[in-house]
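Hi everyone,

Forwarding the result from last night's run.
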Amino acid sequence: MSNKKLLMGLFTSLIAFTIFGCSKPKSETIASDTQSPESVKLKVKGVDASKSGSDVSVMVDKEPAVMKAEVDSMAEMIFNANAHMIPEDNVEMIKAQIRQSAIEQLTMQYLLDREAKKAGIEISDEERDAQFALISGGMSMENAAEESGMDVEKFAEFMKINFRIEKLLDSKIDNLPDITDEELKAHFDSVIEMNPEAGKSPETVSAAHILVMVDEDTPEDIAKIKIDDIYQQLEEGADFAELAEELSDCPSGQRAGGSLGMFGRGQMVKEFEDAAFSQEIGIIGKPFKSSFGYHIVRVDAKNEAGEVKFEDVKDNLKMGMLRERDNQIRSKFIMEVRENSQIENLEAPIFSETVMSMPDIVSEAVEIAEEAVETVEEAAEAAEEVVEAAVEEAAEIVEDVAEVAEEAEETVAEVIEVAVETVEEAAEEAEEEAAE
């Protein structure tokens, strides 16, 4: 993983910032940094925040919360980390979207850090450094700061804020009662009742492979020679994992000695699936070809299809239920914090205060929106019925086409047979004439 990808992971994994975009609080107002009506102008510590050039991007409860310099820094960092994936003709649009995303993240950071300070939560420098070491993958604070475009002091403070927020969110799930076996079993039974297929474990196999791809650089005849040579080395006792790491064109070679882990039917191309599920455990199969190129497969383990037993999945089920419960509690808290704050995004498109102050117009707009929702729901139900009917009809058509195709195939075979006989007869006549 590159330093930039790791760095972005530090920012995005510390807090579930995506929650911020799930809903908009009723108390949120939207202003603009373009010239606004006099009634919308807002004084911020002696600065007219509605004028272009203001240093403030977001106000929270009538106080400056996010400065434009902060937004500039984060937006630039996010853009630079992803610039190689952005089409040139979409750069300006993506930049605008990234900027709004940065505003949202920084606003949520401000709100939650404010709550953490109210709760008396602090993070020492030692705690910050220890937590950073756990998630940094060995990257130093100095290198991370340099990659982010911040100086070390600012970056260290940024980390401390986020760890303080993480501690706040963790405090909301501390001392919660554990999930009992009875609750787990009830959840397990309800899942099976709703979806009987969930109670069945499919046939699976664990396999490793060596791949020689067929492409412009390696034509098929060369690929075949290479795979045969590898197979010969394996037959003579060479180590499979070492050859996979050295010669396989699949990333699994470098990553795990060619191991693909456990997989079920339908997850691999047919030729690979057939080989993996038909081979015996521990046997290295002969080379075969798929759409990717030539493979050599070794099967490491197999699991037969069967019924899922509660005891076998209880631990994983518990982890999933705890994670879901904890996330719901954190999300609810975050939404409450946001909904109880008056947020003014001074960079967003303006909603005229004049229009917003007209209750009749707003009320009528709400009624129209509700009617539109009902119309859409009715249309969706009707569309679903039409789709179901169309699917049934399409299925019948497919069956008819299949029958016709079979008949056509038989006819083509007969035509070919007749043609072959005609050609043979003509050839015999030609030979006879030549002999005469």
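The chain has 14 helices and twelve strands.

Cheers,
N.
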